[in-house]
Specification:
The structure is a single chain. The chain is an alpha/beta fold. The protein has eight helices and 13 strands. The chain is 41% helix and 24% strand. The strands form three sheets. The chain has a five-stranded antiparallel beta sheet, with no helix packed on it. The protein has a five-stranded parallel beta sheet with strand order 3-2-4-5-6, sandwiched between helices. A three-stranded antiparallel beta sheet has the order 11-13-12. Strand 2, helix 1 and strand 3 form a beta-alpha-beta unit. Helix 6 crosses helix 7.
Length: 228
């Protein structure tokens, strides 16, 4: 079944109050998104976003360090092209004026209600879905395949396949729950060229090295299929 891409937002939380940070984290995860890091200060946030994907930054404004949450959010957004939700106990005119210079989803004033945070995270998810141009065939919870651009995704990240590996994958997908026999595989991948079992095994080995969690089922002596 072809479905619109469901976006699992990789989220970084910048909050120096541990209780608030844990509360925010629980809400984000309950909505099906991933918290990749919780940063207690701006330097920590800048450090973690250098080494990980960030789709959503949920940031307090008044934090320890030389830079406040607004400055950190601007830097992270420029680096990761992420969405931003601000949380703060302050809403003075100067703060609001500076926040207005950032492309943000929403602004929560402490103490905020849980449903207010849920709404803003859901808006961020919907915005991410609209920005995605992929119509995906969901293979399982990890892998999806875009029919339009003929690309395999592992948790939203495109996987680079060789031409032969892609032919094998496409044959598996088109077979659906049916078995892709050795003979069919050989014909689709290599055409009329003679193929021995060792050549076939090498192709499968390289494919599985790139996508180790792909639900590939070997029916020994017959062929392959996608395991449901």
């Amino acid at each position: 079944m072809i479905m619109t891409m469901i976006i699992k937002l990789k989220t970084v939380i910048l909050e120096d109050e541990k209780i608030v940070a844990m509360h925010v984290s629980k809400v984000v995860q309950r909505l099906g998104h991933e918290v990749v890091a919780i940063a207690g200060d701006g330097e920590d946030a800048l450090s973690v976003t250098k080494g990980c994907q960030c789709d959503l930054l949920i940031s307090d404004i008044r934090i320890a360090g030389e830079k406040d949450g607004i400055e950190i959010a601007q830097t992270v957004q420029n680096r990761c092209n992420c969405q931003v939700i601000f949380i703060t106990a302050y809403r003075d005119v100067k703060t609001l004026d500076r926040v207005a210079g950032v492309d943000f989803v929403g602004f929560l004033v402490k103490p905020f209600r849980e449903d207010e945070l849920e709404t803003l995270v859901q808006i961020a998810s919907l915005r991410a879905q609209k920005e995605s141009r992929h119509n995906l065939l969901n293979i399982d919870s990890v892998y999806s395949y875009c029919i339009d651009c003929t690309t395999l995704f592992q948790e939203r990240r495109p996987v680079e396949l060789t031409e032969k590996e892609h032919r094998f994958l496409r044959a598996l997908i088109e077979a659906g729950e049916r078995l892709l026999s050795y003979e069919q595989l050989d014909q689709i991948v290599w055409g009329e060229a003679p193929v021995d079992s060792n050549t076939r095994r090498q192709l499968i080995y390289r494919f599985k090295q790139k996508v180790p969690y792909f639900p590939l089922k070997l029916v020994k002596g017959f062929g392959y299929r996608i395991e449901k």
